[in-house]
Amino acid sequence: MKRVLVVAALALLCWIGFGAHAASWAVPKEPTQSAESEKLRSLQPGTKLTVHLLDGSKIEGVLREVRADSVVLQQKHGKSTTVMLADVKGLETKSGGLHPVTRVLIIVGATVGALFVVAVATC
């Protein structure tokens, strides 16, 4: 009899702790248009973008213009494409990598460091 009461009490506590609340936290929130548009407004024209659409496709191109309800991208073959913000699921910016001067400085620094280590090791 004790075991039945303990199991019932445990079930009641679990129900109160986990099941008696509204499940609004479990419903996925719709992405807001303002978050995407704010991200777009912070980008400079000429930024390489990948726009992921709600239908699962993606468009790659260079940002040309941001309008109130759309984005204009220039794709590789020179065609301009207008994408409505309502159709945008997400954005992905592409970085161009390191600046060429930065690459040269890293290589020169690594070479000088290696030569220093070799010079110290031979002395």
Q: Which sequence of SSEs, written as H and E, runs from N to C? A: HHEEEEEH
Tally of strands: 5
Level-1 CATH class name? Mainly Beta
Average of pLDDT: 81
Largest sheet: 5 strands, antiparallel
Domain module count: 1
Cα distance, first to last residue? Answer: 85 Å
Walk across the major sheet and give the strand order.
4-3-2-1-5
Number of helices: 3
Helical content class: 40-55%
Parts with pLDDT < 50 across at least 5 consecutive residues? none
Look up the CATH topology. Answer: SH3 type barrels
The percentage of residues in β strands lies in 25-35%
Defining key terms:
single chain; 123 residues; alpha+beta; SH3 type barrels; 5-stranded antiparallel beta sheet; 5 strands; flat
Molecular structure report:
With 123 residues, the chain is of the alpha+beta class. The protein has a single domain, classed as SH3 type barrels (Roll). 41% of the residues lie in helices and 25% in strands. It has helices at residues 2-19, 33-42, 100-122; strands at residues 48-53, 58-66, 70-74, 80-84, 88-93. The chain has a five-stranded antiparallel beta sheet with strand order 4-3-2-1-5. The radius of gyration is 28 Å and the shape is flat. The termini are far apart. The mean pLDDT is 81.
Task: Detail the topology: elements first, then pairings.
Elements: H1 2-19, H2 33-42, E1 48-53, E2 58-66, E3 70-74, E4 80-84, E5 88-93, H3 100-122
Antiparallel strand pairs: 1-2, 1-5, 2-3, 3-4
